[in-house]
Write a structure and sequence with these properties.
globular; single chain; 3 helices; alpha+beta
């Protein structure tokens, strides 16, 4: 009988000690978990989310904003001294303009239209660099019409694989650049925009 009382006393004492530990943990704000793994997973998720927005050196990254649809109604937006990656096979509209006022080439590929509106008077260079073996050409327009051409660069691919146009842009005026393809060509490319503006001279 004495042994039973002793065992019962030990059990009651142990339960009371556990109760006290729990109360103390709540008082100091220590969370109850099923082990350290839950806390580790939560911290790992937070670190993963943070890493998506930063480079390896800890600086924040921001994607280039070229919002639009690539057509005349909503052209992709270009900014001075920037570069964008594109793919006319994926984002180009169906062939609408097969000819331009500044070239005799048959431009029957899918078309991607960009708009640039400088904040100052600038000398602008736009370069088109295909990243696939596709014969892509570059056109500069004063309005979103094929025959409003100001300049074009449409050299056959076997002669050169990079196209560029240089022009003097006026502050607040919108200029359109078009990536098109010779003989139904379409594919990936990089577009670079360099501006030398009055405010920076």
């Amino acid at each position: 009988m004495n042994r039973c009382k002793t065992a019962f006393g030990w059990i009651v004492g142990l339960l009371f000690a556990i109760f006290l530990v729990g109360c103390m943990a709540d008082a100091v704000g220590v969370p109850w978990t099923n082990g350290d793994s839950d806390l580790y997973e939560a911290e790992s998720d937070e670190e993963s989310e943070d890493s998506d927005d930063t480079d390896s050196d800890g600086t924040e990254t921001e994607p280039e904003d070229i919002s639009g649809s690539g057509g005349c109604d909503e052209p992709f937006l270009l900014r001075c001294n920037s570069q964008v990656a594109g793919n006319s096979e994926e984002t180009g509209r169906d062939d609408t303009w097969s000819g331009y006022s500044c070239t005799a080439r048959y431009e029957s590929g899918r078309e991607v239209i960009y708009a640039l509106t400088p904040d100052d008077d600038c000398e602008v260079v736009v370069r088109l660099i295909p990243t696939e073996a596709k014969d892509l050409d570059l056109f500069l327009l004063s309005s979103c019409e094929a025959f409003s051409g100001l300049a074009c660069s449409s050299t056959p691919q076997d002669i050169q694989n990079q196209e560029s146009v240089t022009f003097d842009a006026e502050k607040g005026v919108t200029y359109y650049t078009v990536v098109d393809g010779y003989d139904m060509a379409a594919g990936a490319y990089r577009l670079e925009v360099e501006c030398s503006c009055n405010s920076s001279k």
